[in-house]
Design brief:
By secondary structure, the chain is of the alpha+beta class. The protein folds into two domains: 79 residues, 2-Layer Sandwich (Ribosomal Protein S8, Chain: A, domain 1), CATH 3.30.1370; 100 residues, Ribosomal Protein S8, Chain: A, domain 1, CATH 3.30.1370.10. The chain contains eight helices and six strands. The longest helix is centred in the last third of the chain and has 28 residues. It is globular and about 45 Å long.
Length: 189
């Protein structure tokens, strides 16, 4: 059974998908055992896989291509090869309606001055965050992405940065405590 999937990414992201000399595309094809055909004039992409075991990898390749299209480098997008890593895409227009000024403001709140807020968000949640176009995309473990999503929601809803940082620090602290308790429970057993 052959698997084929059509995708489209922004033209500005084709170079990131291909990589220097086609290196990124070749790596995705090799790791996922797929063929990727790119139309660099339209942004259309055809993803092909020829056998059933590779279809699961073809789905991973699809997510990797989507992540690259959402602003991630191919290196960061390749984290999706790992079964423990998921991708979550948030449409920031859900918080703004059709106002481009509001969208710009929300993106600015999430990124922060010189990228400070996004960096703190990534460090405290152990995720990668990309703000591209009208979306925010998060890569990480299920639990970490859930925390990052809540922080994004808080920022997009206008909560003060200070409150978001407290939430993130408190969640990280609680996570450490939970891991220690789990470790102690294993030693007792």
């Amino acid at each position: 059974m052959d698997y084929q999937h059509n995708l489209r990414i922004p033209l500005q992201r084709i170079g990131a998908l291909l990589g220097k000399g086609g290196k990124a595309k070749n790596k995705i094809e090799k790791l996922c055992d797929v063929e990727i055909i790119v139309d660099s004039k339209s942004g259309d992409i055809l993803l092909k896989s020829s056998s059933e075991p590779e279809q699961f990898n073809a789905l991973k390749a699809t997510d990797i291509i989507i992540a690259i299209g959402r602003g991630f480098s191919s290196e960061k997008a390749l984290q999706l090869i790992n079964d423990e890593v998921i991708m979550e895409i948030v449409d920031l227009r859900d918080y703004t309606g059709k106002s481009t000024d509001a969208l710009t403001r929300i993106k600015g709140r999430i990124i922060g001055l010189e990228g400070k807020t996004r960096k703190i968000l990534e460090e405290l949640t152990n995720t990668n965050v990309s703000i591209y176009g009208y979306s925010a995309t998060i890569l990480g473990s299920v639990i970490d992405v859930k925390v990052a999503l809540e922080a994004l929601h808080m920022l997009a809803s206008g909560k003060p940065h200070r409150a978001v940082y407290r939430y993130l620090e408190g969640t990280k602290r609680q996570s450490k405590i939970d891991r220690l308790k789990l470790w102690e429970d294993k030693e007792v057993a």
